[in-house]
Amino acid sequence: MDSRPSQSSARALAATHDEFAGLLRATETARDRRMVAITACCALRVGQLVSLMREDMHFVPASRTAPGCSYVLGPHIHLRKRGGHPKGAANKNRGVVIVPVPGAVEMLYADWMREGAQGEQSATPEDNPEVEELRRERDQALATVRRKEADLLSLRNVLQRLMVENTRLLGGDAAAPQDR
User: Fold this and answer.
1) CA 66 to CA 134: how far, in whole Å?
2) How far is CA 97 from the centre of its chain?
3) Three-state SS at 58
4) Strands (DSSP E) along the chain, which ranges?
5) Hey, CA dihedral for 43, 145, 22, 109, is it positive or negative?
């Protein structure tokens, strides 16, 4: 019997937003949050995730490059086929695959770096310009999201008022001929 889900399987193919948020809340360290986020947001297999190394992660702004990398479309990771993982994990891709990384994952990566630096006491985030740049970008992104949410709330309120007014006007027009 084949244990893989078929097309007719009733199982969900992906975690819902709430399930994903629950997974992130259940993690205890920034490292674990980063791993959950990279796996989910970049649609990685477990073998691809555990075979990642720091040099595979290029969290640089668009139009800039990391040393030895020509990809200029923004933050990304390189999935490379490697052998010799202690637990036997392997990337199944035949060659190098470049996967774009969303901004939220970058923020979790910065948290992980900050947590490691604090644990090692080797460097503080203020001493690391890369972490500070990621923090600034995170803060700008959060401010933009908050503004957009406020705009959406305003539009929703206007739409609700318009619907109430339209209902009142349509109800008033329909009642007018009966009143005469």
Assistant:
1) 15
2) 19
3) strand
4) 57-58, 76-79, 97-100
5) positive
pLDDT of 64-85, one tens digit each? 778 888 888 888 888 887 776 6
Question: CA 155 to CA 168: how far, in whole Å?
Answer: 20
**Single-letter amino acid, residue 75:** P
Tokens of 50: 């555990």
| Tens of pLDDT, residues 8-31 | 555 556 778 788 888 888 888 878
Relative to beta strand 57-58, strand 97-100 is unpaired
pTM (2 d.p.): 0.49
Q: Cα–Cα distance between 107 and 141 in angstroms, integer?
A: 10
The total number of residues written for the chain in this structure: 180
22 three-state secondary structure: helix
Residue 99 gets which letter from DSSP? E
Please report which residue ranges of 66-102 form alpha helices under DSSP H: none
Is the CB of residue 1 less than 8 Å from the CB of residue 61?
Answer: no
- Write out the two tokens for 176: 């007018």
